[in-house]
Structure of Adenosylhomocysteinase:
Amino acid sequence: MAKEYDVKDLGLADTGRERIQWAAQEMPVLRQIKERFERTKPLAGLKVAACLHVTTETAHLVQTLKAGGAEVRLCASNPLSTQDDVAASLVQHEGIPVFALKGEDKETYYRHLEAVLGEGVQFTLDDGCDLVTLLHQERRELLPSILGGTEETTTGVIRLRAMAAEGVLQYPVIAVNDAHTKHLFDNRYGTGQSTIDAILRATNVLLAGKIIVVAGYGWCGRGVASRARGMGAHVVVTEVDAVKALEAVMDGFPVMPMLEAAQIGDIFITVTGNIGVLRQEHFARMKDGAILCNAGHFNVEIDIPALEGAAREKRWGRPFIEQYQVEGGRSLNLLAEGRLVNLGAAEGHPSAVMDMSFANQALSVEYMLGRNGQLKAGVYPVPEVLDREIARLKLAAMGLQIDTLTPEQERYLASWQAGT
Protein backbone atom coordinates (compact mmCIF):
# COMPACT_ATOMS: atom_id res chain seq x y z
CA MET A 1 0.00 0.00 0.00
CA ALA A 2 1.22 3.48 -0.87
CA LYS A 3 -0.26 5.00 2.29
CA GLU A 4 1.08 4.31 5.75
CA TYR A 5 -0.89 2.23 8.24
CA ASP A 6 -0.57 -0.08 11.22
CA VAL A 7 -3.21 -2.81 11.31
CA LYS A 8 -3.13 -6.46 12.33
CA ASP A 9 -3.54 -8.20 8.96
CA LEU A 10 -4.63 -6.88 5.56
CA GLY A 11 -5.81 -10.41 4.82
CA LEU A 12 -8.82 -9.65 7.03
CA ALA A 13 -9.95 -6.84 4.71
CA ASP A 14 -12.62 -8.75 2.77
CA THR A 15 -14.25 -10.00 5.98
CA GLY A 16 -14.21 -6.45 7.30
CA ARG A 17 -15.84 -5.12 4.14
CA GLU A 18 -18.68 -7.64 4.46
CA ARG A 19 -19.33 -6.59 8.06
CA ILE A 20 -19.20 -2.90 7.13
CA GLN A 21 -21.78 -3.55 4.39
CA TRP A 22 -24.01 -5.36 6.89
CA ALA A 23 -23.94 -2.37 9.25
CA ALA A 24 -24.96 -0.07 6.40
CA GLN A 25 -28.47 -1.53 6.46
CA GLU A 26 -29.04 0.06 9.86
CA MET A 27 -27.47 3.45 9.07
CA PRO A 28 -29.83 5.22 6.62
CA VAL A 29 -29.28 8.75 7.98
CA LEU A 30 -25.52 8.65 7.49
CA ARG A 31 -26.06 7.11 4.07
CA GLN A 32 -28.19 10.10 2.99
CA ILE A 33 -25.55 12.51 4.27
CA LYS A 34 -22.85 10.59 2.41
CA GLU A 35 -24.81 10.78 -0.85
CA ARG A 36 -25.13 14.56 -0.47
CA PHE A 37 -21.46 14.91 0.46
CA GLU A 38 -20.46 13.00 -2.68
CA ARG A 39 -22.32 15.55 -4.80
CA THR A 40 -21.33 18.77 -3.03
CA LYS A 41 -17.85 18.03 -1.57
CA PRO A 42 -18.25 20.41 1.42
CA LEU A 43 -15.06 19.11 3.09
CA ALA A 44 -12.78 19.28 0.05
CA GLY A 45 -9.10 19.15 1.11
CA LEU A 46 -9.82 19.19 4.86
CA LYS A 47 -7.18 17.26 6.83
CA VAL A 48 -8.97 15.30 9.56
CA ALA A 49 -7.38 13.37 12.44
CA ALA A 50 -9.90 10.96 13.99
CA CYS A 51 -9.43 9.14 17.29
CA LEU A 52 -12.51 6.90 17.53
CA HIS A 53 -13.43 3.29 18.23
CA VAL A 54 -12.51 1.47 15.02
CA THR A 55 -15.75 -0.40 14.35
CA THR A 56 -18.07 -1.08 11.41
CA GLU A 57 -20.09 2.00 12.31
CA THR A 58 -17.02 4.23 12.47
CA ALA A 59 -16.07 2.94 9.02
CA HIS A 60 -19.25 4.51 7.64
CA LEU A 61 -18.47 7.85 9.28
CA VAL A 62 -14.94 7.83 7.83
CA GLN A 63 -16.31 6.89 4.39
CA THR A 64 -18.80 9.76 4.64
CA LEU A 65 -16.10 12.30 5.47
CA LYS A 66 -13.95 10.99 2.62
CA ALA A 67 -16.93 11.26 0.26
CA GLY A 68 -17.17 14.91 1.28
CA GLY A 69 -13.59 15.49 0.16
CA ALA A 70 -11.75 15.18 3.47
CA GLU A 71 -8.38 13.50 3.93
CA VAL A 72 -8.93 11.29 6.99
CA ARG A 73 -6.43 9.49 9.22
CA LEU A 74 -7.87 7.20 11.89
CA CYS A 75 -6.62 5.67 15.14
CA ALA A 76 -8.35 3.83 18.01
CA SER A 77 -9.66 5.67 21.05
CA ASN A 78 -9.34 2.58 23.23
CA PRO A 79 -6.73 -0.21 23.18
CA LEU A 80 -9.38 -2.96 23.21
CA SER A 81 -12.11 -1.54 20.97
CA THR A 82 -10.60 -2.08 17.52
CA GLN A 83 -12.20 -4.54 15.12
CA ASP A 84 -9.11 -5.67 13.23
CA ASP A 85 -10.96 -6.72 10.09
CA VAL A 86 -12.60 -3.30 9.83
CA ALA A 87 -9.24 -1.56 10.22
CA ALA A 88 -7.81 -3.76 7.46
CA SER A 89 -10.75 -3.06 5.14
CA LEU A 90 -10.42 0.71 5.50
CA VAL A 91 -6.77 0.49 4.53
CA GLN A 92 -7.12 -2.08 1.75
CA HIS A 93 -10.40 -1.02 0.16
CA GLU A 94 -10.68 2.68 1.02
CA GLY A 95 -7.04 3.76 1.05
CA ILE A 96 -7.49 5.38 4.46
CA PRO A 97 -4.47 5.46 6.82
CA VAL A 98 -5.54 3.52 9.91
CA PHE A 99 -3.42 2.97 13.02
CA ALA A 100 -5.23 0.51 15.28
CA LEU A 101 -4.62 -2.94 16.75
CA LYS A 102 -6.98 -4.70 19.14
CA GLY A 103 -5.09 -5.21 22.41
CA GLU A 104 -2.34 -2.69 21.65
CA ASP A 105 -0.23 -1.62 24.61
CA LYS A 106 -0.08 1.92 25.98
CA GLU A 107 3.09 2.82 24.09
CA THR A 108 1.56 1.72 20.79
CA TYR A 109 -1.68 3.54 21.59
CA TYR A 110 0.11 6.88 21.96
CA ARG A 111 2.33 6.21 18.96
CA HIS A 112 -0.85 5.80 16.93
CA LEU A 113 -2.20 9.11 18.26
CA GLU A 114 0.98 10.76 17.00
CA ALA A 115 0.61 8.99 13.65
CA VAL A 116 -2.84 10.42 12.89
CA LEU A 117 -1.58 13.93 13.54
CA GLY A 118 1.12 13.43 10.91
CA GLU A 119 2.77 16.66 9.85
CA GLY A 120 -0.37 18.71 10.24
CA VAL A 121 -4.10 18.57 10.83
CA GLN A 122 -7.03 20.98 10.44
CA PHE A 123 -9.82 19.15 12.27
CA THR A 124 -10.02 16.61 15.10
CA LEU A 125 -12.66 13.99 15.81
CA ASP A 126 -12.13 12.69 19.32
CA ASP A 127 -13.73 10.12 21.62
CA GLY A 128 -12.38 10.73 25.10
CA CYS A 129 -10.27 13.86 24.45
CA ASP A 130 -6.93 12.02 24.24
CA LEU A 131 -6.12 13.53 20.85
CA VAL A 132 -6.97 17.06 21.99
CA THR A 133 -4.93 16.57 25.16
CA LEU A 134 -1.91 15.35 23.20
CA LEU A 135 -2.11 18.37 20.89
CA HIS A 136 -2.22 20.80 23.82
CA GLN A 137 0.50 19.09 25.84
CA GLU A 138 3.05 17.86 23.30
CA ARG A 139 2.16 19.03 19.77
CA ARG A 140 1.32 22.68 20.31
CA GLU A 141 3.08 23.66 17.09
CA LEU A 142 0.12 22.13 15.22
CA LEU A 143 -2.56 24.15 17.05
CA PRO A 144 -2.52 27.29 14.84
CA SER A 145 -3.66 25.31 11.80
CA ILE A 146 -6.64 23.64 13.51
CA LEU A 147 -10.05 25.01 12.55
CA GLY A 148 -12.13 22.98 15.00
CA GLY A 149 -13.07 19.59 16.38
CA THR A 150 -15.83 17.36 17.70
CA GLU A 151 -16.06 15.19 20.82
CA GLU A 152 -18.12 12.00 20.94
CA THR A 153 -18.42 10.96 24.58
CA THR A 154 -19.38 12.27 28.02
CA THR A 155 -15.92 11.84 29.55
CA GLY A 156 -14.30 13.76 26.71
CA VAL A 157 -16.77 16.64 27.04
CA ILE A 158 -16.03 16.84 30.78
CA ARG A 159 -12.31 17.13 30.04
CA LEU A 160 -12.88 19.73 27.32
CA ARG A 161 -15.00 21.89 29.61
CA ALA A 162 -12.26 21.69 32.25
CA MET A 163 -9.76 22.87 29.61
CA ALA A 164 -12.07 25.70 28.56
CA ALA A 165 -12.64 26.76 32.18
CA GLU A 166 -8.87 27.01 32.69
CA GLY A 167 -8.51 29.00 29.47
CA VAL A 168 -6.17 26.46 27.84
CA LEU A 169 -8.40 25.12 25.04
CA GLN A 170 -7.06 26.64 21.83
CA TYR A 171 -9.79 25.92 19.27
CA PRO A 172 -13.57 25.43 19.09
CA VAL A 173 -14.99 21.95 19.69
CA ILE A 174 -18.59 20.79 19.29
CA ALA A 175 -19.83 18.49 22.07
CA VAL A 176 -21.54 15.89 19.89
CA ASN A 177 -22.27 13.83 23.00
CA ASP A 178 -24.73 16.45 24.23
CA ALA A 179 -26.96 16.40 21.13
CA HIS A 180 -30.41 14.98 21.90
CA THR A 181 -30.08 12.52 19.02
CA LYS A 182 -26.84 11.31 20.60
CA HIS A 183 -27.09 11.05 24.36
CA LEU A 184 -30.80 10.26 24.60
CA PHE A 185 -30.36 7.31 22.24
CA ASP A 186 -26.69 6.26 21.98
CA ASN A 187 -25.96 6.60 25.71
CA ARG A 188 -29.25 5.08 26.89
CA TYR A 189 -30.19 2.46 24.31
CA GLY A 190 -26.73 1.84 22.86
CA THR A 191 -24.82 1.53 26.13
CA GLY A 192 -27.72 -0.30 27.76
CA GLN A 193 -27.88 -3.05 25.16
CA SER A 194 -24.19 -3.35 24.32
CA THR A 195 -23.07 -3.57 27.96
CA ILE A 196 -25.47 -6.42 28.69
CA ASP A 197 -24.42 -8.05 25.41
CA ALA A 198 -20.75 -7.89 26.42
CA ILE A 199 -21.35 -9.39 29.88
CA LEU A 200 -23.28 -12.27 28.33
CA ARG A 201 -20.64 -12.90 25.65
CA ALA A 202 -17.79 -12.80 28.14
CA THR A 203 -19.37 -14.85 30.93
CA ASN A 204 -22.45 -16.72 29.63
CA VAL A 205 -24.05 -16.21 33.06
CA LEU A 206 -27.79 -16.19 33.62
CA LEU A 207 -28.81 -12.63 34.52
CA ALA A 208 -32.29 -13.54 35.78
CA GLY A 209 -32.26 -13.52 39.56
CA LYS A 210 -28.80 -11.93 39.83
CA ILE A 211 -28.23 -8.75 41.83
CA ILE A 212 -26.64 -6.23 39.46
CA VAL A 213 -25.16 -3.07 40.95
CA VAL A 214 -25.08 -0.13 38.52
CA ALA A 215 -22.76 2.67 39.66
CA GLY A 216 -24.01 5.93 38.15
CA TYR A 217 -27.50 6.88 36.95
CA GLY A 218 -26.77 9.22 34.07
CA TRP A 219 -28.14 8.39 30.63
CA CYS A 220 -25.76 5.43 30.26
CA GLY A 221 -26.58 4.14 33.74
CA ARG A 222 -30.31 4.47 33.06
CA GLY A 223 -29.92 2.37 29.94
CA VAL A 224 -27.88 -0.34 31.66
CA ALA A 225 -30.26 -0.51 34.64
CA SER A 226 -33.33 -0.72 32.41
CA ARG A 227 -31.91 -3.49 30.21
CA ALA A 228 -30.63 -5.48 33.19
CA ARG A 229 -34.07 -5.34 34.81
CA GLY A 230 -35.57 -6.45 31.51
CA MET A 231 -33.38 -9.56 31.67
CA GLY A 232 -34.84 -10.44 35.07
CA ALA A 233 -32.03 -9.10 37.25
CA HIS A 234 -32.55 -7.33 40.56
CA VAL A 235 -30.90 -3.95 39.98
CA VAL A 236 -29.37 -1.74 42.67
CA VAL A 237 -28.15 1.79 41.88
CA THR A 238 -25.38 3.74 43.60
CA GLU A 239 -24.98 7.50 43.08
CA VAL A 240 -23.26 10.63 44.41
CA ASP A 241 -25.80 13.02 42.87
CA ALA A 242 -28.95 13.42 44.98
CA VAL A 243 -31.16 14.31 42.00
CA LYS A 244 -30.07 11.30 39.96
CA ALA A 245 -30.42 9.05 43.01
CA LEU A 246 -33.97 10.33 43.45
CA GLU A 247 -34.70 9.60 39.78
CA ALA A 248 -33.49 6.03 40.26
CA VAL A 249 -35.76 5.61 43.27
CA MET A 250 -38.73 6.99 41.32
CA ASP A 251 -37.89 4.54 38.50
CA GLY A 252 -38.24 1.71 41.00
CA PHE A 253 -34.60 0.89 41.79
CA PRO A 254 -33.18 0.47 45.32
CA VAL A 255 -30.47 3.07 45.98
CA MET A 256 -27.68 2.61 48.53
CA PRO A 257 -24.00 3.41 49.15
CA MET A 258 -21.47 1.21 47.37
CA LEU A 259 -20.14 -0.14 50.68
CA GLU A 260 -23.58 -1.61 51.33
CA ALA A 261 -24.14 -2.75 47.75
CA ALA A 262 -20.72 -4.45 47.66
CA GLN A 263 -21.94 -7.08 50.11
CA ILE A 264 -24.94 -8.18 48.06
CA GLY A 265 -24.00 -7.65 44.40
CA ASP A 266 -23.33 -10.47 41.94
CA ILE A 267 -22.36 -8.21 39.02
CA PHE A 268 -20.97 -4.66 39.30
CA ILE A 269 -21.12 -2.23 36.37
CA THR A 270 -19.45 1.18 36.69
CA VAL A 271 -20.65 3.91 34.37
CA THR A 272 -19.79 7.22 36.03
CA GLY A 273 -16.89 8.81 34.14
CA ASN A 274 -15.03 9.15 37.45
CA ILE A 275 -12.07 7.51 39.13
CA GLY A 276 -12.00 4.91 41.92
CA VAL A 277 -15.68 3.95 41.97
CA LEU A 278 -14.86 0.38 43.03
CA ARG A 279 -12.01 0.37 45.56
CA GLN A 280 -10.24 -1.91 48.02
CA GLU A 281 -12.85 -1.41 50.75
CA HIS A 282 -15.48 -2.64 48.29
CA PHE A 283 -13.43 -5.60 47.06
CA ALA A 284 -12.98 -6.72 50.69
CA ARG A 285 -16.76 -7.07 51.09
CA MET A 286 -17.68 -8.73 47.80
CA LYS A 287 -19.01 -12.24 47.36
CA ASP A 288 -16.99 -15.10 45.97
CA GLY A 289 -17.46 -15.08 42.20
CA ALA A 290 -18.49 -11.43 41.88
CA ILE A 291 -18.15 -10.04 38.35
CA LEU A 292 -16.70 -6.54 37.86
CA CYS A 293 -16.91 -4.52 34.66
CA ASN A 294 -16.78 -0.93 33.46
CA ALA A 295 -18.92 0.80 30.84
CA GLY A 296 -17.27 4.22 31.27
CA HIS A 297 -14.72 5.48 28.76
CA PHE A 298 -11.47 5.09 30.74
CA ASN A 299 -10.22 2.12 32.77
CA VAL A 300 -10.02 4.11 36.00
CA GLU A 301 -13.45 3.47 37.51
CA ILE A 302 -12.34 0.15 38.96
CA ASP A 303 -9.18 0.51 41.05
CA ILE A 304 -7.21 -2.18 39.25
CA PRO A 305 -3.89 -1.53 41.09
CA ALA A 306 -5.73 -2.12 44.39
CA LEU A 307 -7.25 -5.31 42.98
CA GLU A 308 -3.82 -6.46 41.84
CA GLY A 309 -2.39 -5.66 45.26
CA ALA A 310 -5.09 -7.64 47.05
CA ALA A 311 -4.73 -10.69 44.79
CA ARG A 312 -2.88 -13.77 45.98
CA GLU A 313 -3.16 -15.26 42.50
CA LYS A 314 -4.44 -14.21 39.10
CA ARG A 315 -5.41 -16.32 36.10
CA TRP A 316 -7.52 -16.15 32.98
CA GLY A 317 -10.94 -17.70 33.57
CA ARG A 318 -11.85 -17.49 29.86
CA PRO A 319 -11.27 -14.84 27.17
CA PHE A 320 -11.80 -11.32 28.57
CA ILE A 321 -12.07 -12.56 32.18
CA GLU A 322 -9.23 -12.17 34.69
CA GLN A 323 -9.88 -14.05 37.93
CA TYR A 324 -8.32 -12.56 41.05
CA GLN A 325 -7.99 -14.86 44.07
CA VAL A 326 -8.26 -12.66 47.14
CA GLU A 327 -8.55 -13.03 50.92
CA GLY A 328 -10.78 -15.80 52.16
CA GLY A 329 -10.37 -17.86 49.02
CA ARG A 330 -12.77 -15.61 47.15
CA SER A 331 -12.58 -15.09 43.40
CA LEU A 332 -13.30 -11.67 41.84
CA ASN A 333 -13.72 -11.65 38.06
CA LEU A 334 -12.67 -8.57 36.07
CA LEU A 335 -13.98 -8.24 32.51
CA ALA A 336 -12.05 -6.67 29.59
CA GLU A 337 -9.19 -5.41 31.80
CA GLY A 338 -11.57 -2.87 33.32
CA ARG A 339 -11.83 -1.06 29.98
CA LEU A 340 -15.03 -0.29 28.10
CA VAL A 341 -16.65 -3.69 28.37
CA ASN A 342 -19.11 -3.22 25.52
CA LEU A 343 -16.25 -2.70 23.06
CA GLY A 344 -13.62 -4.80 24.79
CA ALA A 345 -15.72 -7.97 25.02
CA ALA A 346 -18.35 -7.31 22.34
CA GLU A 347 -18.99 -5.12 19.28
CA GLY A 348 -20.14 -1.88 20.86
CA HIS A 349 -23.38 -0.07 20.15
CA PRO A 350 -25.89 -1.27 17.57
CA SER A 351 -25.52 0.39 14.17
CA ALA A 352 -28.99 1.95 14.38
CA VAL A 353 -28.05 4.26 17.25
CA MET A 354 -24.56 5.01 15.93
CA ASP A 355 -26.29 6.15 12.74
CA MET A 356 -27.57 9.20 14.63
CA SER A 357 -24.39 9.76 16.66
CA PHE A 358 -22.17 9.75 13.58
CA ALA A 359 -24.66 11.81 11.58
CA ASN A 360 -24.09 14.45 14.28
CA GLN A 361 -20.35 14.11 13.77
CA ALA A 362 -20.53 14.51 9.99
CA LEU A 363 -22.91 17.47 10.05
CA SER A 364 -20.95 19.17 12.84
CA VAL A 365 -17.76 19.01 10.76
CA GLU A 366 -19.62 20.61 7.83
CA TYR A 367 -21.18 23.25 10.12
CA MET A 368 -17.86 24.30 11.68
CA LEU A 369 -16.04 24.39 8.36
CA GLY A 370 -18.72 26.71 7.01
CA ARG A 371 -18.07 29.08 9.91
CA ASN A 372 -14.30 29.09 9.84
CA GLY A 373 -13.01 31.93 11.98
CA GLN A 374 -16.43 32.79 13.45
CA LEU A 375 -16.22 30.52 16.49
CA LYS A 376 -13.79 31.32 19.28
CA ALA A 377 -12.00 28.63 21.27
CA GLY A 378 -14.49 26.85 23.52
CA VAL A 379 -17.01 24.02 23.77
CA TYR A 380 -20.18 24.40 21.69
CA PRO A 381 -23.46 22.45 21.49
CA VAL A 382 -24.65 20.79 18.30
CA PRO A 383 -26.94 23.39 16.68
CA GLU A 384 -30.58 22.50 17.34
CA VAL A 385 -31.39 22.68 13.64
CA LEU A 386 -28.94 19.83 12.98
CA ASP A 387 -30.26 17.79 15.89
CA ARG A 388 -33.83 18.08 14.62
CA GLU A 389 -32.84 17.33 11.02
CA ILE A 390 -31.19 14.10 12.12
CA ALA A 391 -34.32 13.09 14.04
CA ARG A 392 -36.45 13.92 10.98
CA LEU A 393 -34.26 11.84 8.68
CA LYS A 394 -34.30 8.92 11.12
CA LEU A 395 -38.10 8.96 11.37
CA ALA A 396 -38.41 9.15 7.59
CA ALA A 397 -36.05 6.18 7.18
CA MET A 398 -38.26 4.24 9.61
CA GLY A 399 -41.35 5.10 7.57
CA LEU A 400 -42.86 7.17 10.37
CA GLN A 401 -44.66 10.50 10.19
CA ILE A 402 -45.52 13.02 12.89
CA ASP A 403 -47.98 15.89 13.22
CA THR A 404 -47.20 19.51 12.40
CA LEU A 405 -48.47 22.59 14.21
CA THR A 406 -51.46 24.35 12.73
CA PRO A 407 -51.13 28.12 12.09
CA GLU A 408 -53.41 28.70 15.09
CA GLN A 409 -51.17 26.57 17.31
CA GLU A 410 -48.07 28.43 16.15
CA ARG A 411 -49.70 31.79 16.94
CA TYR A 412 -50.75 30.52 20.37
CA LEU A 413 -47.27 29.36 21.28
CA ALA A 414 -45.78 32.66 20.12
CA SER A 415 -48.22 34.81 22.12
CA TRP A 416 -48.55 35.79 25.72
CA GLN A 417 -51.97 37.44 25.87
CA ALA A 418 -54.10 34.29 26.10
CA GLY A 419 -54.90 33.35 29.69
CA THR A 420 -57.13 30.83 31.41
The two ends are 72 Å apart (CA to CA). The chain has two domains: 10-178+349-397, 190-339.
